[in-house]
Amino acid sequence: MSFFDHLNELRKRIVYSAIAVLAGATVGITISKSVMGVIARPIMDALRANHLDERLYYTSPTGGINIIIKLGLYIGVVLASPVVLYQVWLFIAPGLYKHERKAASVFLVSSVSLFLAGIAFCYFILLPYTLRFLIGFNVPYFTPLITVNEYWDLVLILMLGLGLIFQTPILVFFLALFGIVTPGFMVKNFRYAILIIAIVAAVVTPTPDALTMLIFMAPMIGLYALSIAVAWVVVYRKRRADTVARQGAD
């Protein structure tokens, strides 16, 4: 394909992706009220556990519609992501060899799966403990007045942060592929990795209690162990390919 053919192909994939996002956002805005109930469940449970009024507030006349539109757009991006990823695949696949197509498809599936696993861990495990600690930290003579936007920002930061942290094995895969890290190096420096994980958990965790920090550290340590296995597989396959190449040369 010529340069302009590539541009036309790219334009077509972008248009299809934009249409998918627009359709997803339309659906998202339609169901956003129901989804908001699911997102609000952890904070409602925390408020109920501390015998507080189970309500979230918005402080401007447009606050309600803004949160519905914002949530609808996020839902639209999530719903459209399979279509968008498929369009990306259609654009890059013709330029890849067969084994490269297989590797790229495994990368896309693994990346999305790990990101969703991070979101699920945040929603079902980390978020309830964090909110119960924060809401339960009573200040005498004061009652918490939590706004929808503040709660949504906290949820978004935690979910996005955990989703990105769960991409660690993918990052290590590329680092091992280019020879930057090896499984031996990662095992040798395991204790330093634990120290770095503890520092990251202490900085990122929105509460000062040790339990939430440990909950945050647990998947990171597990991901580090998984990353060691990923690096080992990459190094093993590279060495085997080098051996086959040398035997073929002989």
Short description:
The chain is mainly alpha-helical. Helix content is 82%, strand content 0%.
Give short descriptive properties of this protein.
mainly alpha, 250 residues
How do the SSEs run, as a string of H and E?
HHHHHHHH
Q: Any low-confidence stretches, pLDDT <50, length ≥5? A: none
Q: Total helix count? A: 8
Structural class designation: mainly alpha
User: How helical, in percent, are the residues?
Assistant: over 70%
Beta-sheet strand percentage? under 5%
Oligomer: single chain
- Report how far the terminal alpha carbons are from each other: 38 Å
* CA radius of gyration: 23 Å
Return the average pLDDT rounded to an integer. Answer: 86
Largest sheet: none
User: Based on CA inertia axes, which overall geometry fits?
Assistant: flat
Number of strands: 0
Count of structural domains: 2
What does this structure look like?
With 250 residues, the chain is mostly helical. The chain folds into two domains: 1-160, no CATH class; 167-250, no CATH class. Helix content is 82%, strand content 0%. Helix 1 packs across helix 2 and helix 3 runs antiparallel to helix 8 (210-249). It is flat and about 80 Å long. It starts with a helix and ends with a helix. The relative contact order is 0.10. The model has no long low-confidence stretch (mean pLDDT 86).
